[in-house]
Amino acid sequence: MTPGSENEGIFARFYYPAEGLGHYAAYKEWPLWLPHPECYNGLATVTKALPLPVWLKAKIIGIMWNTVHIPTVPSAKPIKKPHPFIMFSHGLGANRTMYSSISMDLASHGFFVMNIEHREQSACASFKPSSDGEGLEWIRHQALTQGSEEDYPVRVAQLDIRIKELSRGLDLVEQLNAGTPVVNVLDKGGKFDLTNFKGIIDLSKPVLMGHSFGGATTLVGLSKEPRFKAGALLDPWLFGLRETISQLPEEIDKPLLTINMEDFVTKEKSLAQLKAFLSSRSEVERVMCTIRGTVHYNQTDVPFATSRRMKPLGGSVSETGEHVSRQLNIAVLRLFLHRQLGLKEPRDCHDIVREYETLVEKIQWFDDRIV
User: Fold this and answer.
1) Residue 142 and which of 253, 266, 283, 340 are 20 to 30 A apart at CA?
2) 337 CB-side CA count, 13 A
3) Is position 348 annotated as part of the catalytic site?
4) DSSP labels for 267-301?
5) What Enzyme Commission number(s) does the record list for this chain (predicted)?
């Protein structure tokens, strides 16, 4: 977290290829998945899986997830070579930690991933430095009825704030890559030297990626921030773009991948809007596929953090299991990213797509060689 208010600073978590002991050897250092009990109430207001009072849902969420840890080593030294850069934007009720599984997968394949925590009241809970600079002040989730008329102007305003956060995030990683001193207000003891990131973040073709509301953020970010060179949408929730989405296909001149989860894209009826991007600007690569038997949470950590018995309460029951879904998501993402970034073709990803080909509804594919 950099100094200043939520409108000045930036709050994020980085995932990157690291040196040293394997993460299982350092299990005592693993951070909590939900970093604070304040997150429980925000999650309780968002989840529709539990038809219970918010206070009771929050209590159940705490029981389910208060001991879940992320298998990463905090403050590990990065491998000293340039890593392609991805910025990730979270969905409603999520935060900087709830996409750790997909971020760890990408980092294990050589990417430097920055998970921004948006502080415009869309996260389950966030915080900022207090006005006296001595403590932290909580920013709680703004509970609204999703998709309501009351909801729409709030989402438009939040998108505007999110785009400013994305640009400040790019400014930050440019400083880190240059070795410019950066203050981390959460590391007052200086346990991690941020100059370790000098020269290891490849910013030649930054990629913007987002899930759900973060997918809408990605579309606007690609149109507004010229430094991003490609984008990936994970099950995008497009409600906040209902009055502007028709303009975006022509405004975005960058390669774009969309991976839909079958249940959500069907319920939200967003497929027609997404197809508009495939039919415009034929000179720009636009790719979209839907993974069958999947639900919205399959692109988050929720299925991995929830026991089999509790999955119905977490809203993460899916016909296609979370491990297969994650394999397909990562395989499709890597095929797209390697192609756009000029990296060596990942043959293992071809094998995964072939193995589970019946689960992939191909609206448009990369080329005939893959299948």
Assistant:
1) 266
2) 26
3) no
4) HHT-HHHHHHHHSS-TTS-EEEEEETT--GGGGSS
5) 3.1.1.47
Question: H or E element: which one contains 257?
Answer: strand 256-261
Residues 6+ apart with CB under 8 A from 332: 257, 259, 289, 349, 353, 360
Q: Report which of residues 17 and 312 the model is more confident about.
A: 17
pLDDT at 2 over 90: yes
Q: Determine whether 307 is an active site residue.
A: no
Decide if 209 contacts 88 (C-beta within 8 A). Answer: yes
Active site residue 316: no
Task: Tell me the longest C-alpha to C-alpha distance in the chain.
Answer: 60
Euclidean distance between CA atoms 203 and 22, whole angstroms:
27
Residue 216 and residue 242 in contact, taking contact as beta carbons nearer than 8 Å: no
Pairing of strands 112-116, 12-15: antiparallel
Per-residue pLDDT, averaged over 10-25, amounts to 85
DSSP 70-118: ----TTPPBPSS-EEEEEEE--TT--TTTTHHHHHHHHHTT-EEEEE--
Which residue among the candidates 101, 122, 212, 316 is catalytic per the annotation?
A: 212
C-alpha to C-alpha distance for 113 and 233, rounded to whole angstroms: 15
* 280 exposure class (CB count in 10 Å sphere: 0-12, 13-18, 19+): middle
Interior CA angle at 90 toward 89 and 93, to 5°? 155
The separation between CA 237 and the C-alpha centre of its own chain, rounded to angstroms, equals: 13
Q: What is the pLDDT of residue 150?
A: 84
The catalytically annotated residue of 118, 296, 301, 318 is 296
Q: What is the pLDDT of residues 318-331, one digit of tens each?
A: 999 999 999 999 99
Pairing of strands 286-291, 360-364: antiparallel
pTM over 0.85: yes
Label the pairing between strands 125-129 and 360-364: unpaired
pLDDT at 368: 44
Neighbours of 147 (CB within 10 A): 13
- Continuous H helices in the chain: 38-46, 54-65, 100-108, 151-178, 213-224, 248-251, 262-268, 271-278, 302-305, 311-314, 322-341, 347-355
